[in-house]
Protein 1
Amino acid sequence: MTIIDPTDAVPAPRPGDAEKTGPLLEVRDLHVEFKTREGVVRAVNGVNYSVNSGETLAVLGESGSGKSVTAQAIMGILDMPPASIPKGEIRFYGQDMLKMSAEERRKLRGARIAMIFQDALSSLNPVLSVGFQLGEMFRVHQGLSRKEAKAKAIELMDRVKIPAAAARVNDYPHQFSGGMRQRIMIAMALALEPDLIIADEPTTALDVTVQAQVMDLLAELQREYRMGLILITHDLGVVADVADKIAVMYAGRIVETAPVHELYKRPAHPYTRGLLDSIPRLDQKGRELYAIKGLPPNLLKVPSGCAFNPRCEKAQDICRTERPLLVPVTERDGTELPGRASACHFWKETIHG
Amino acid sequence: MAELTKADEPTDATPNVSEVDVADVHSEEEAVAALDAHVDRGEPILQVRNLVKHFPLTQGIVIKRQIGAVKAVDGISFDLYQGETLGIVGESGCGKSTVAKLLMNLEQATAGEIFYKGQDITKLSGKALKAVRRNIQMIFQDPYTSLNPRMTVGDIIGEPFDIHPEVAPKGDRRRKVQELLDVVGLNPEYINRYPHQFSGGQRQRIGIARGLALNPEVIICDEPVSALDVSVQAQVINLMEGLQDEFNLSYIFIAHDLSIVRHISDRVGVMYLGKMAEIGTDEQIYDHPTHPYTQALLSAVPVPDPDARDHRERIILTGDVPSPANPPSGCRFRTRCWKAQDKCAQEVPLLAVPERFKSSDSPAAHESACHFAEEKDVVHAG
Ligand SMILES: Nc1ncnc2c1ncn2[C@@H]1O[C@H](COP(=O)(O)OP(=O)(O)OP(=O)(O)O)[C@@H](O)[C@H]1O
Ligand SMILES: Nc1ncnc2c1ncn2[C@@H]1O[C@H](COP(=O)(O)OP(=O)(O)O)[C@@H](O)[C@H]1O
Ligand code: SF4
Ligand code: SF4
Ligand SMILES: [Mg+2]
Ligand SMILES: [Mg+2]
């Protein structure tokens, strides 16, 4: 098992990046809405998170919580309209990408920021060979010849441990298994050695034994290339295995951030606590599982105040009227807890009991 | 042992399951009566013996030639006891859903028997088959596609009464459906709503209500919570456990989430490529697995506790699951097994309590289909 050690995560200096400091990527107060016939879907309502080089940020949330929409906004691949970004910043090495020209953003995509999608089969072109699609990255971005690009493609396939890469470079996507296709997606994302990879549920469609292979590979390559990684998932287990820090999303907002060990030990938000409590545990066998009551909210009418209030056991009057901000979480005596924040009026009671 | 070719693999891969007490019936009336018989808690209610399902692989459009077969289920035997939950786990394509469909009589078995209360249901027809169908019900994985979007919830839940009017006479149906809605925790006033007006978790409750309509004794659940959000899964699991106690149900619970399976199951069977690799109590399988595949599967599951990950040994398997149309000779797991030897390519390992553990009362003494079954310490989820 590859373990990512945050202590050796110093960003490797890249040519031309010397003057840039601070986090690799920082999302600030991002809002995304969709105009639909039923009304305005507020999919992202003020997301804040950041990731450094060599670091893995896991974004955890149930379906519909806005994880993918946030990722698409970062990649600049939202269809606008129906989507619009009324507010927010997405800073890459300090520069707000939302203020860049379409051309500038296109240059970043693939070369500096790459994305891996859940469903590899539908993101690969079925009528082009895998080698051609991998090579295309080099032909388009680096102007390599067909022959050179093919050699690079084979090298990459080797890198992601596809057996007999040279023999399979001309095969088509459907000729590979699900696990191998996901490796090819990883190879494609890695091709130009980007600074940041966003992986949206990269293993959700795979079997557990293959999922373990793929996550292992991703972690190994990330460490080797010292990339920043945003790993989007709904699986608490996957998060615990590979992430350095976690951002928990609910109804389009980050409700808690924390280093991975601390989140599991001492959650500071009732929603996080509820999720952790509803994992079946050995000592609970034969007993009722803890279950968060109610349902995730309808984004056409997000509850006022704290979006979690109709389902929260700790909710008070203030929760129905005042929206809790994401604030730093501290020890009882006020000592700072680095990287920790919670958007709950009663975070003190939640973390300190 | 003589060299075995794939053609003369023993189909009887499970020699030591208990004898089936075959019901002695001569007429249809006797058969129906036998199917209504009471089974004591802990006695076998369903007994599966050497069950096989091969799907023909054909070539050609006008004149179809069979060029092979997908061996989706290839010789499986197990018992389901009254009142218990038997979990079945395994990776995609290993044959779990096919087993479920065979038990439901939705697919015709290629070979083998399924005894329900001592009668082979693969050979029943007419009234007796209808009686079996009433007693064995199914809950499906996908709450989005398994409900007809044009039918009201009342019609969906009441539909089984059309085929089995004896359970609820016409005038009584509405009340019966409302009762069922109440049982699964939905508002009885929702009876005239349509499926799209409900969330995933609520739709799964509708599916469960429908499964309960005919007062079945056995419910086969194929991935009943996999499509649901984490926070809603626990609600549905709790509901299913409550209903089991209330109505004295026996469950076969198919899922890929190993910690949920452990939570709900009394016994667990692990499938690989159409065969049962290992079966035992939840403790035997999770804490004392002896089959290398089970060990790898358990160790591959991400542990939702970051402290545990630093202390565990993980087995990362290489390669993919082979095609069920062309499974490896001998042990099907041998192409990915780190312990494989020559014997594994030649002899099919039978599902049995390994010889070396036979006289011991250790939890390792349970059925495992491996020539070299032994315990291995792996930290794992659940
Ligand atoms: N009608 C069919 N015709 C041909 N092959 C089939 C058919 N139904 C299933 N199979 C094949 O049989 C094998 C077992 O399928 P099955 O659906 O039972 O798997 P499963 O264990 O339920 O998988 P999953 O976890 O993905 O649901 C697979 O290889 C599948 O492709
Ligand atoms: N093109 C679109 N038009 C309208 N609504 C959308 C669109 N894309 C996403 N949404 C909505 O935005 C919300 C967040 O979606 P998403 O980010 O995909 O969630 P997840 O956290 O599961 O990745 C959902 O309610 C979804 O239905
Ligand atoms: S703000 Fe109130 S409703 Fe929201 S999570 Fe905290 S206690 Fe619960
Ligand atoms: S029989 Fe051989 S190949 Fe099969 S699981 Fe056992 S050791 Fe591995
Ligand atoms: Mg998504
Ligand atoms: Mg299935």
Note: Confidence is low (pLDDT under 50) at residues 1-20 of chain A.
Protein 2
Amino acid sequence: MTDCAHDRNFKTMLEVKGVTKEYGGRITALSNVSFELEKGEMAFLTGASGAGKSTLLRLIFREEFPTSGEISLGPYNLAELPGNRIPDLRRHLGYVFQDFRLISERTAYENVALSLEVAGKSTRHIRKRVDEVMQQVGVWQRRKSYPRQLSGGEAQRVALARAIANEPLLLLADEPTGNLDMKNSRDLFELFCKLNLQGATVIVATHQVAMASEFGKRILHLEDGALKQDSK
Amino acid sequence: MRYLLKTIAEIRRAAHHQPLSIFGTIITILLAMLLPGIFWLAANNMTAVEKRLKANMTVDVFLVDDISQAGIEKLRGELLTLEGVSDITFYSKRDALFRIRESFGQSIIQDLDDNPLPASFSLTVDDTILEPEAADSLVAHLSALDQVEEVVFAREILYRFSSITGSIKRFGIVITVLVIFSGIFISANTVRVAITDRREVVEIMQVVGASRPYILTPFVLLGGLLGLIGAALSSLALWLIAGYVSRNLAELQFLSLHEIIVFILTGLLLGMLGAILATRRYLKV
Ligand SMILES: Nc1ncnc2c1ncn2[C@@H]1O[C@H](COP(=O)(O)OP(=O)(O)O)[C@@H](O)[C@H]1O
Ligand SMILES: [Mg+2]
């Protein structure tokens, strides 16, 4: 496979085909899940706790393999992706966690810069790009603060800035509002929608089904590992 | 450049977070490497002494008392044709007396009217003759010659010396292997602790797509640095010990610059190897 990650002339960004994931042969976390996500599209992945949302995101992130079925992301067919290309894949994915996962001894600015450093970008490019994305998510004023000095909402925005800094093919978020209050949660979802309007392809996993449906985006609803509803 | 800064930061952090473990590792490597260092030093000096001993090794061929001048010349001719004999010196009966007096003082044998000491040829021989079999056959050959009374080749001391040197070298190699293994193990352990300490950061690095080398290089360099410092301090300690022995016991020659570099590089390598081992076991990306 050639590295055509920068060739963004594909319409389907994510293709999940008949994916089943079993743990130890007894627990079926996902069963026969199929859907496609187009470039520039945004979907909420909803479902109760234990429905399989995190599992699906982990499969897309290539932390684990599906028991059966196939996943492809832009130019990458995950089943064929050799282990040493995983870092390359992840530089083309943005990931936001419930618990932020910021490095505590680095400032907000340095945390965002990390994903660009890792991708081997020049110092000049990094400086420019970090300023840009921090402004985009509204935490530029907090760039010199350390994670412990940030509110939950701010910390998650910093994590989001880090996730989008490399202009990922797909932005994944796993319960990004899990540690936030209602107001902050709604603001954050709105921010995801705004990024989507600006062109990002996004999947946000959340158990807050009601709130997710307020935004008029596509809803992929999981129940016990099966895709029960696709609003598309 | 950024790599280097990252590494320095990582090492400073490790030194800050686990000073005892870092300090202990360096001291342990220092002490552990002292042992093979001492063996190396000993083997080197023994070999040097052995070489000098070999260079001074002679075969003394004592002649019958009534040998004629013509007989002496004829024998000299024969000896010169022998394989492995590089030089010949003749000592007359008078010379023999002088030599004995030089060694043991004037008084000895002074009162004797008649000189009882025999004339002799002293043969300087090549290394090939110093091999036991070659030596035996040379002695046998010389003893069988006419006009030769006795042949003395005091090679036992050389053999004993060589065998001691050989034992020291073999034992040194075993010790060296053991020390290298334990050094690798120690470094691996320390680096593992350092990585565990940085578990959170390492995971975040993986999430943002850092490659294995990008994440692990600082840790491998940390291990290498521990080995390097340990070995450097160890060679310094070795130098102090050699100096002390030279002043108080016997003149020792220290390792050559070249050997010191090998010694320190060994430390560097075993430190890095341990670190690589630790990272391999730790990170599955
Ligand atoms: N590593 C694992 N080993 C065993 N079972 C797992 C593992 N990960 C998830 N599961 C199970 O898979 C199901 C789906 O979990 P998860 O994807 O975390 O759900 P969600 O994120 O929607 O809450 C759950 O029953 C969970 O216990
Ligand atoms: Mg989950």
Note: The pocket of adenosine-5'-diphosphate (ligand 1) is lined by residues A 23, 27, 29, 47, 49-55 (CB under 6 Å).
